[in-house]
Structure formats: C-alpha cells, structure tokens
Amino acid sequence: MNKSKGRVTLPIEENFLEETKELMDRWGADALRDSDGTKMDEEMKKLHSKIYTTYFVARGHNEFAEQHPEEMQQLYLMSLYNTATESSLKINFLQGYFKEQIDADYVHDPKKWWEVIDRTTGNVIDPASWEVIQQDNQLLIRDAEPWHEYTVSFLAYMKWDPTQMYNHITNNWGDKPHEIPFDARQPYSQQFIRDYLQKWLKENPDTDVVRFTTFFYHFTLIFNHLGKEKFVDWFGYGASVSVAALEAFEKERGYRLRPEHIVDQGYYNTSFRVPSKPYLDYIDFIQQFVARQVKELVDIVHQSDKEAMMFLGDNWIGTEPYGKYFRETGIDAVVGSVGDGTTLRLISDIPHVDYTEGRFLPYFFPDTFYEGNNPVIEANENWLTARRALMRKPVDRIGYGGYPSLPYRFPDFIDYVEKVTNEFRDIYSKIKDAKPYTGIKVAILNAWGKLRTWQTHIVAHGKFYKQTYSYYGVVEALSGGAAEVSFISFDDVIENGIPNDVDVIINAGDAGTAFSGGEKWKDVRLVTAIREWVYNGGGFIGIGEPSAVHHEGRYFQLANILGVDKELGFGLSTNKYFTEKTDSHFMAEDLDVYYFGEGSGNIYALSEDTDIIEYSDGSVRLSSTPFGKGRGVYMAGLPYNHENTRLLMRAMFHAASREHDFKKWHASNMHCEVHAYPSIGKYAVVNNSSSQQQTDVYDGNGSIHNLTLEPSNIIWGEM
Amino acid sequence: MNKSKGRVTLPIEENFLEETKELMDRWGADALRDSDGTKMDEEMKKLHSKIYTTYFVARGHNEFAEQHPEEMQQLYLMSLYNTATESSLKINFLQGYFKEQIDADYVHDPKKWWEVIDRTTGNVIDPASWEVIQQDNQLLIRDAEPWHEYTVSFLAYMKWDPTQMYNHITNNWGDKPHEIPFDARQPYSQQFIRDYLQKWLKENPDTDVVRFTTFFYHFTLIFNHLGKEKFVDWFGYGASVSVAALEAFEKERGYRLRPEHIVDQGYYNTSFRVPSKPYLDYIDFIQQFVARQVKELVDIVHQSDKEAMMFLGDNWIGTEPYGKYFRETGIDAVVGSVGDGTTLRLISDIPHVDYTEGRFLPYFFPDTFYEGNNPVIEANENWLTARRALMRKPVDRIGYGGYPSLPYRFPDFIDYVEKVTNEFRDIYSKIKDAKPYTGIKVAILNAWGKLRTWQTHIVAHGKFYKQTYSYYGVVEALSGGAAEVSFISFDDVIENGIPNDVDVIINAGDAGTAFSGGEKWKDVRLVTAIREWVYNGGGFIGIGEPSAVHHEGRYFQLANILGVDKELGFGLSTNKYFTEKTDSHFMAEDLDVYYFGEGSGNIYALSEDTDIIEYSDGSVRLSSTPFGKGRGVYMAGLPYNHENTRLLMRAMFHAASREHDFKKWHASNMHCEVHAYPSIGKYAVVNNSSSQQQTDVYDGNGSIHNLTLEPSNIIWGEM
C-alpha cells in the first residue's frame, strides 16, 4: 500500500506542536480540531491543515444564561412512586434527583403544568386536591386513597448541561462553573445564539469548519441525588420541553399535550416504547423547529465562507439525519463516533450532506493509554468491525479524539494507525463512487422505520445491555453484509404497503417494544399486508418475539407465517408434537454450534410444515416454514459474531427463496467476506479476523479459487 | 415396628387366589378391588376382606347408548386457524381430530350453535355468510376478508369414552367395542343410570364399596387424527357441554353462553386461564347439577347398605371435593392416585367424607416390573415424598393398582411394601386424630382459591411440564411442611378481605396465568387490600411473575411490597443500581447453592431498601423488602427439593417477621423434618432421604439434641 495523504482529522493539544506535525505526517492528516477543554494556539493554526473548531450553541455562556434564568432549558420529570398509607400524602417529588442539575419550576403555575396521577387507577388527580409546598419542595395530596400509589409529573429547570456535567464530575473539575443550558426557543436566547455566532465567526477567521456540538437540546441525561447517572436515553426529547414549546405545540397542532405524554409512566418515551400519536406529533414539531433554527445558523456560517459540521450526539435532539427535515438544515457535514459497523453506517449513510466523518476508537484517554496496556488490540478490533461496514459505504473521513500526547508514547500504536489511515484512503479511493454488489434487499420493520435508521435497540450510544445485544446483532451483521438495507415502519406498511424492491422483512425484538411492535400487531392492515406479501413470495424473518401481542389465541400475530408461536402457559394442555430437527438445511450448512444470546424460550412449532433447524431446552430456536410462495424464518436471537452474520445472510437468501444466488460473490470461510464493485470491475476479499484465514472465493462468474489471507488483510481482485 | 393389619387395599387378578391370600397376609390388606379389565371370582369374594367393585356410570353400556345416539356426550371444539387467501374460504373443521372419537353435531342447527370467528379482528361472522357442507364436513365462508384468519367453533359428539380410548389404544385392544359415553343430563340416560345401578347392586351382593370411576363427565381429553393425545386438561369441563346443558344454563342463569365462552380462543378455559365470569357461572351450574345427580346415586347405594366411594379422576368433572356442592353428594369415601406429597394432601384434606384412600406408586404394570429393574427404588422415592405429607394429614387407607402377579415375582418389593404398610399403620395409629404443630399459616393466592386446593399448576395429573415445575414446587414443599396451608382466590380477598389467621400470602406463577393473576391485578380492591395487610405486618411472597400485569409504569402491581420489578425493555434507560448481595440473611442460613428452576429473569431491585440475597445473570433471584411493618419476599422460582423446602419455610417465617419461632420444632439437617403432635405428647424426626443423616433436633422446649437416622427412618420422641 502506498503512502497517501488526507481524509484524516487529528485532535490537538496545547504544547504539542512538533509532535503534532509528526503525527500529521505519519497519519496523513489534513485537518486539526480542538475539543471540549483544549484550545488551538496560533502556531498550530498556521500548520498546513483544515481547522475544525468545536462550537457550543446553547451552553458555555453563563454571562448570558445567568441574566435570563427564565430561559433555562426545562424537563418534565416524574417523582418516585409513593404509597398513601392514610388520606393525606406528602410527596418529596425531587427525591432521587440531583440538586445541582434540577430545580422545580415554580415560575409557571404547577396547577396548570403539573400532573398528579394515581398510578393504581391511572386517574389524574384534580389539582384542587393537592398543593405544592414550595419551601420544602413537597407536594401534599389531600383526600388521597390509602394504599394507592401516586406520582407527580413536574416541570423542572435543568441548570447544568448534561455533557459538561458528566465531564465535570468524571474529571473532578472542582469549582469550574457549571454551564447553564439555555433554550433556543426563547426570545433572548434565540437572538443571543445568532449574535454570538456572528461575533465568533469574525473572531475566528482561521476556522474552516464550525463543528457544532451540537445544537439546542441534549438527549435526556439525568443524574441522581448522588450525582450518578439515573436516566439516559440517547434519543430522548426530555430537554426540549418548555412552557413555550407546549404552548406553541397547542397552537400549531390544535391540541394540548398532557405532562403524561412526555413523562409516559416514567419511561419518558424511550425508543423502546411504541410511540404514541401525541409523542410522534411532538417530535415532529420539535424537529421542524430545530431544522428551521439550524438552517439560520448554517446560513450565518456559510456567509463567513466556512463549513457547518454537526456532531451526531450530545445536543442532537431534533436534528435526526434520517428525519424529514434534516435536508432543510443545509448542514455540510456530519461527524460521529464509530463503535462498530452499525455506527459507521449510521454516519456514512446520512443523506443530504457533502461529507461524513467517523471518529474512531480508542479515544486518546488514559483508560486505554496506560502503561502495560496494548492499545493496538482495541484499535484493531474496532477497525475490523467498522471496516466491514466501510466496505459497503465508506465515511468520507476518519478521525480521532482525546489527547494525542497519550498515544504518542505508544510507537506501535502510531505505526498501526499509520497503516489504518493508509488502508482507509486506499479503500476510499477505490470504492468511493462504486455501489457494491448486493445480492438481496432487506427491510427492518419496527415502529420507528427510517427515522431510526441503524439505530435500533440502542439505549445509550455504545453501551452494552443484556436485553438488547441479541437483537442489536442483526443490524451489526447487516452493516457489513452484501445486502441492501432499509428501515421501514409499521405506519409505512399501513399507508404505502411494502416497497416493491424488498426481498426480506425482518422484525426483531422483545414483545411490546417498539422494535417488535406490541399493540401495532392488532392492526388488521399491517398483518394482512404482510401476509399477502409473504404468500406471494416474500420472506419474513422474525427474531425473538416478532409480531407478539396476545390476541385471539395467538401470541405471534404472524404465527401462520412463522410456523411457530410462544407458549404463555394458556396452551399447555395442547400437545406440542413437533420437536424433531430436520437432517439438513440450507441455513445450517456452515454452522455446527448456534449462539442465540438471550434468545426467547417456550417457542413451539405449529405443524409439521415447519422445518426445525435448531431445537434446544424445550424450544424452537431456528426454523423455516413455507407460507404460500414465501417463507417465514424464526430465530430466537442473533448476537453479533461472524457465524451469526453468515447465518443471517443465509436466512435472508432462504427466506426470499433465492438460495441459488447466495454464493455469487462469496467466501466459504465465515471470517471472510467478499465485496464486489461491478462498476469499477473490482472485488475485495476481506479477512475480518486477527488470524490468518484460508477461504474459497466465489468470484461472481461461477469460478472458485482458494486464497490465504494474512490477519486483517484485504486482497483486491479484478473482475 | 410391630406387625399390624388393615387400612390397605389390594387389586385382584384372575387365577391368583393363593398368592393373593399370601399378599393380604404379608401386607395386612383388608380390602380387595377389581379394576377396569379384571373381574373378581367367587373364591376371591369369599376371602375375609372388604370388596370394592369398580363401577362405571356413564359408559360401558353400548347396548343402551347405541339406542340413544342423541344422548351421546358432547364437546365444543375449535378448528385449526385458517388463513383466507381469497374471498371464499373452505374450512375442514374436523382436521386434526380423531375420527373414532369425534363426530360433528349436525342434529342441532349449526347456524344456532356454532360460531365462526375472524381471529384477526375477533369479530363473529354473521351465520348468513357461511354454510356447512355436511357431506364433506366442511364449512364455507363467503365474503371472507383475504389474509384474515378464521376458526370454526363447532358442537361435536364424543363417541368414545376418553379413558377407555386411552387404554384401548395403549394396550392394543383391537376390535373390543368402543365404549360410548352418554349424558346424565338427558332423560333416557338419567333413567338408565339409576335403574342400572339398582339392578347392579342387587346382582352384586358381595360388594361392600361401590367404587365410582367416576360419575358423568370426563376431564377434557381429545385425540388427534393419528389417535394420539391432542389436548388434555385434568380440570376441563369440555365434555359436560350439550345443547340441553346450554339451554338449561340460559334458563337458570338468565343469559346465553356463546361457544366462545367454552372454546376460549382454543384454550378451552384451562386452569391456567384467569376464568371469565361466564365460565365460572358455567362450572358452578355443572357442579350443582352433578352434585344433585350424584346424591341420588349415593342414596341408592346407601339403600343397599353399601358405601359409595369416588375415584378422584377420569369422570370427576363437577365433583370437585373442595367445591361448594361436594358436601351435598353424600359420598362416603374418596380414593385417588398419590404421586407425591401434594397429591396425597389433595386426597387426605378432602372434607365431608368418612375416609380417604391413596393409591400409591408404582402401579403393578410391566413398565416398572420388568426383569433387571428394581421397583423398590421407585416405591421408596414415592413413599418418602408422600410420607412427608402423610405426617401432616394422613389418608385413612392406602392401596395399590394393577396386576399383583407382577410384583409377586420381586420378593424385595414384597418385603418393602410389607415394611411400608406397617409403617403407614404405625403412623396412622399414632397421629390419626392429632393435629400437628404448625408454626405458621400460609395462604396460596390465585384466581381459583379453595376450589383448586392442592391443584395449582397441574395440567395433566402427574405429568411434568417445563413451564410448571418451578411453581409446583411451592405446594409440594408445603404439603409436608409444618405450616397450615389454605388456598384463597382474588375474589375472596376482594369480597371478604384477608382471613385473620393468615401470616403469609404466596402468589406464584407466570404473568397472565390464573396462578399469577393477570388482569385481576388491575383491581384496586385487590391491591389495596394486600398493601394494607402487609403494611400492618403481613408477609407476602411473590414467586416468578407475581402480581404481573403491565399497568401505569409497573409490571408487578405489588412492586412496592416486593421491592423488585421486571424489566420489559421500556425501562432500560433507567439505571439499575441495586445489584449487591447482602452479606448474610436469615433466609440464606442453610443454603450454599440456589436452584430456581426456570425462574424469571430481568428482575431488578427498586431501591436500597431491598435486601438482595441472590443475584445472578443480571437478575435478582431472591430478595426481601420491608413494607411498613410487613415484608415482601421475591423468589425467581421454587422447584421442589429438600433445600427449597427449607428455603420456603425460612422465607415464610421471615416474611411474617417470625424468625424467632422458626426453630421451635426443627431439624438442622435439610433432609430431615420434625413433626410435633402436642395433643398426644409425641414428635417424629423423619429422615426424608435414602441415606443416613445426622441432625440436631430442636424439641419445642429450647433443648437441642443430636440424632442419627438410618435411611428413610422415623424416630419418635415423647414430649
């Protein structure tokens, strides 16, 4: 591989000029960026590179924020559950919240804006029956029903930006001021945000790219009374709420939101909840507002001949890149953190921007760069995982974050990143404009559809959850697979039917969640559309508890397609005859051992029509069932690994009755993949592992040849 | 132990007179009985013993039944689910049923008595839109909605008694006639049943005990098209249905039952379903009818100076011994099969009879008595398990079933039973009238209450189910524990509150089932009654998914008592802090390893108030939480073994805040138990295992002494 230059962004650090020059040279970096906490000095700015400057829109200006406390950002919060033991009940509604983050809003009338709910009945308590005791931060319910539980949904001010709060507490920043977030919807704040940006642009002529981190509203991140994380939802609209927003919503949409529409029984409408109509209306309303406001800031940036880049995270609420209004923002570029293939595709597939950039792991932080640790291992794992996705759709740039003085002390790491940056540029230069060959088209079906493209089963970006990894594996496997992937919602299917070019639909998730679908499956239009489509040849793959809602004797509403259902206990009296595994099956050809993760148990086959491929611990784990000309495939779960990636690819070709196309471009070894680019006449055989691999390669024309690939290696071939 | 006599019943066999005499002598038997398939000859009748004669009320008289086919027993059955692929749909509603068992009822108008349901919408189809094609046993729906699923609920005749069918098929009885069950509600049958009994009594003067097997309606047992079991529900009222019954019900109760009230989405109201009001009305209606009819037969028996004994099984529907009308039947005795401690208590606790008899395992059948097998092992296991319960409340007699010539070839077995029968008589003679000491009073709370005393989580009597053993262990542990056990229903609590003398309530089961309670937990009266009671000092033990129904942000509606709830995916954004185990706990004192069976996962503690005793695989498995003066204990599951019996006993004393009483009468070794009988001044230390055990014995006065017990041994002490 030749030494090449460009498409790489380096973080800077004070007093690190010469070393920065060296790293820029070694890694071919053509852009430098500062961070939250580092500032670029004049010498650095003179280096021959593009300069990104981190810009905070709605925080970091306490001199302004303190003058307008009434424009502080707000939240709707729910108290703990409180059991009444007599007819009066006092609720310390701030209990469990972090005093340094949260203040109750006594500016706006609690009787109008708060809600006290009897959680035993679900009834809202008449505001005449309760009163707020402001000096104690208590709420007193008179005429409470003994032994009922009550909650208070209250409007609060958020007086500390959650990201700065997180960094501040984590890094012991002591008496460094707490940055107060202000609300772009409020008049002074809106004006200030524009004025300050204009002023700042004038004062920062060397900046080429304004790196917005991000815009107005932080994803929901609430700390507890001990200053530890209490609630985190990377998609949460919590901090976008305000009296002004609620009033504007009512005016625009013609109805008033209840606190409960935001508080949602304390679940706060996480993306695992099947979204209610009011909540969908609300996020649409906020997205429109945010897009308009962002557009104004972008225009101001453009007037200074600079680029506007958005960081996908922190204050990104309302800017969803796959949302309806993102195009209108006029943003030039998006940068985001790449933890795996899924997050790479989340960034690289973003439409309507000039370029995308992925910030790769590891961060240059002491938790990785400490004596005795080998950071190359993490870097290599991250690169291999992300590279699969890069081969399908590359980001336009890569970069790193943190303090470069840390990796500088690890020469092997510097060497490794040199290799990675060169490999990235080599891949990019070859496939940038080449659409890779895809053998099959798959749609992920859930309550969110396109809006949450590559964002299914995420709670907090990058965090592992026992309840999600067995589903998250589906998108991770697909992120680097030779499949065309789309995300469609139940409402899409109901309104527009199933797109013509979809071969396979996947529905994966726990019962009741937005990813499985819950009550949505009682919608006749949804189930009939899918049944008709599969019957006429479509493939349906259900993972975990697909189409699950107990209704009319079925738990899986598509049990007739899937050929299996889940025993809830009501059906124990009915014998379950079908437990024999098939001798051989297309889906099973590469696998000896299965790994379904948490999986779902108590799954039984409905009839002998179902081919059971894996049955263990009294439950069908993998099966296939014909339905008309189509097929239904059931899987208990699909955590990510190379074997399950292969299994999913096989399952898709099988479900679509397209087995004959499976090996067109193909590597027999599960640790390898073949990516073909017909428009440029090239293909790549990729070793996704850190060991040497041998594989048969199917080259698209029916010929097979054997290759040996060194660890992590790519071998390019010509068609 | 002295050689003693009596309280033992032997099955007879043809041509086995001398050996029978010998067995009677060895085992001290004082009664002989015939079986389905054996007949007692004259020599045998002359032996000095009581004679039981098996009597079938509603089958075994084809000469009558064939003359009155319109009085054959009936069933409501549901077809398979059928997906419409166009606007007309033909349903082969008998598909999957056994032709030799089932005929469609074309005598009564299908348009009036059948129901066609769109299972996609739940709507009943207008009978004008469908027609039955009788010659093909098909039903044609015109104007079906394509891609909807349809079922037919149809009235059928059951032309073969299920028990005889089972025996016939299992034993290859070839062309032996199929016994046709007739319906005691029909005029000719009712008359025939009485007349025949009178005639029979005259013809059987030697019979002392008429052993009814049983009365009118068999539990639901339906075979499939291959003659294999398709549906079995030991509690099922399926075979009690008829047009006559439905019409009588309407007249008596003032409303008409729909087929769906019986068919119940194909679940047929198994005891795992939370019973609907119409179903409860229906079983009450049948029970009243059955009790009246049984009473008439019992009176006839009494007029012949014989006893009426009821076999608890087969055609026992409507005679539930813990039901409201059992007392009215006048039955003298009940005999039933003893598989474990629970089934022993199920029999021995039966009220309103003169005596009870347990039929012990193993049956004298070739599946146990074959060369090379040691039947003593099974006999000993069965005896040890049942003996625990016997020590609490003995049956009055024991007996065996099958062909005695089989065990006769196993001298060790004959010796062993000699020992068992002597031990039984010894125990019985001592404790017959002595109420054992109970340290604690526990109520099992579910949708069925008293009616299903000792009958929770049973599908088919004696059969293992993966979905039930982790709950069934609760009653099995209690059957031999020093606790007073009652069974109460949600409706009992709602109507009458919690009985004063209950220390602990247990709610155990999977979400949605009758044993957990499902939607019942949305009833404010239920949850408030329990919260108040626990707050004032009661103990609540929840096992598996107690009080589970998703409502207002809680899954466990008693989460405030239990201190734990189950994560369904909606709450993943909320941090779960509390995962640390307590260092020591009263409940944990005897146990090193826990065994929760299938357990329930994703259980988290709500606050630091919860003591977590066992936490594994990301889930709380055992915990305790204070609630006012009371406590809530959570357990993931409780399969039966000696360790879990100890755990449950500890959990009850702990939940009731009565730890100080736990060791009053107590064996330190978990394989041993102490049963005290204050009224006779005796106590028994029992080795429940087949190995020698050493134990400290707490003797009720605070003294402790050490004992060594031989395998299976009992040592009696004086107070």
Please describe what this structure looks like.
- The structure is a homodimer of 719-residue chains.
- Chain A is of the alpha/beta class.
- Helices cover 27% and strands 24% of the residues of chain A.
- Chain A contains 18 helices and 36 strands.
- In chain A, the strands form 9 sheets. Chain A has an 8-stranded parallel barrel with strand order 1-2-3-13-16-17-18-19. A 7-stranded mixed beta sheet of chain A has the order 21-20-22-23-30-29-28, sandwiched between helices.
- In chain A, helix 6 runs parallel beside helix 9, helix 7 crosses helix 9 and helix 11 packs parallel to helix 13.
- The longest helix of chain A has 27 residues.
- Chain A is globular.
- The interface between A and B is large, with 67 and 67 residues.
Give short descriptive properties of this protein.
homodimer; 719 residues; alpha/beta; eight-stranded parallel barrel; seven-stranded mixed β-sheet; 36 strands; globular
